[in-house]
Amino acid sequence: MNKLEHIGIAVSNLEAAEQLFAQLLGTASYKREEVASEGVITSFFQVGNVKIELLAATHADSPIAKFIEKRGEGIHHLAFDVDDANARMAELSAAGFQWIHTAPKDGADNKRIAFLHPKSTGGVLTEICEDKG
Ligand code: ZN
After folding, report:
1. Distance 84 CA to ligand 1 centre (A)
2. Which fold is adopted by the domain 3-131?
């Protein structure tokens, strides 16, 4: 992994969370983006070299809605920047890691992304993301 790219935080009310995090971080959200395939709206903050990605569900079956139901709002995942998502996925699969996605897919913020299953990463939902350039 090259670096921690962003930290994903599950929120139930995006407007309220944007206000809270803008106050907390001292910077406003610089963009919102919907990822329809995941049933989420994201909102991004830049903090130094790391981003904070707020995630709100767009419907009741969204993985974010299910996450909040089970565990409440809070840290949802860590995302690590990689040069080549396919290659990294193959390497980690060979090392025995399990994936939620079977192949990298389009995510927010101009990335190709894939999620590792938290069962194979010590309970920490982990994303790899490759910048599409
Ligand atoms: Zn993410």
Report:
1. 16
2. 2,3-Dihydroxybiphenyl 1,2-Dioxygenase; domain 1 (3.10.180)
Task: Name the pLDDT band for 8 (thresholds 50, 70, 90).
Answer: very high
Where along the chain do its domains lie? 3-131
- pLDDT value of position 44: 98
H-type alpha helices, 7-101? 14-25, 63-71, 85-94
Token pair in block for residue 128: 């790899």
What is the SS3 assignment for 85-98?
HHHHHHHHHHCCCC
Residue 58 is classified by DSSP as S
CA 114 to centroid of ligand 1, rounded, Å: 9
pTM of the model: 0.94
Distance 128 CA to ligand 1 centre (A): 8
Q: How far is the CA of 94 from the centre of ligand 1 (A)?
A: 23
- 79 Cα to the center of ligand 1, angstroms: 6
Per-residue pLDDT at 28: 98
